[in-house]
Amino acid sequence: MTNCVIVRGAGDLATGTIVRLVNSGFRVLLTECAQPSAIRRRAALSEAVYDGVTTVEGVTCRKIDSLDQMERVWQNGEVPLIVDETGESIRKLNPTVVVDAILAKRNLGTTRDMACITVALGPGFTAGEDVDSVIETMRGHSLGRILYTGAAIPNTGVPGLIGGYAKERVIHAPADGALTLVTDAQGQTVDIGSVVHKSEVIAMVGETPVYATLDGVLRGLIRPGYAVTKGLKIADIDPRMEQKDNCDTISDKARNIAGGVLEAILHLSMQKGVRCLDLF
To answer: pLDDT tens-digit profile of 102-127?
Structure first.
């Protein structure tokens, strides 16, 4: 058994959990798909898949090509990430903890026997059956709550309400094609952190323009060059202008979920008599 936490997925919500675990002293290995589609990519460690290395809130993630490179990355104070969509790394390492943070709204293959402690984020899992615990990801009173039996609130398909807007905040691809950036009337590139206005063009998908659905801050935009399919979530606008300076940092939602994951791991480790954190 390898005394580490394997986190499946490294998008922006997963990154909140990863940073919390790393800063709490855990050795963490990340597994990702070959082409992650994080919208809030400046706050997502999954960008290391493309760039080789990326940093969010002082935690640096480095892509590795084999598990043989993992220990060296840890020794350098960084977090290793390997492209692994099937969970092969889990089978090879037999980690102490597995956290499913893919947030696919369904179980893509995580099982309770993958590790001594298993935690999953959001709907698609039943605590006590698929995994040991499930963390609620729906905005509201129960956000971050730990479930040891039962399932999270089912996916509604409607984004959480922020600044009086819900479904309007999220923009989906109007066509198939590669996304490209555009410039605004002042000649500035429109990208994450830009202030946008309803009905103005914020990107192109192939030859098809993508229009802003409301006034606000472009909080998320899928990576330029990504080959999107019609209907894929590609952008996120926050109507709160004061959030302009927060586009590169972990969200309140991600931090809340991260607290639930950390508590669940520590609670289950005491309950099961598993030593998962070597601090002394």
So the answer is: 999 999 999 999 999 999 999 999 99
The DSSP code for 189 is B
Cα separation, 32 vs 14, in Å, equals 11
Specify whether 138 is located in the same domain as 215.
no
Identify the burial level of 139 via C-beta atoms within 10 angstroms of its C-beta, where 0-12 means exposed, 13-18 middle and 19 or more buried: middle
The structural domain count of the chain equals 2
Distance CA 137, CA 260 (A): 10
pLDDT digits (tens, 9 = 90+) for 201-224: 999 999 999 999 999 999 999 999
- The continuous run of DSSP H or E covering 62 comes out as strand 59-64
Same domain, 58 and 191: no
pLDDT tens, 19-32?
Answer: 999 999 999 999 99
Domain of residue 79: give its range: 2-156+252-272
Looking at the structure, do residues 190 and 77 belong to the same domain, yes or no?
A: no
DSSP assignments along 191-248, one per residue: -TT-EE-TTSEEEEETTEEEE-SSSEEEEEEPPTT-EE-TT-EEEEEES-GGGGGGTT
277 falls within a domain: no
CATH number, residue 123: 3.40.50
Cα–Cα distance, 277 to 210 (Å, whole number): 47
Q: List the beta bridge partners of residue 108.
A: none
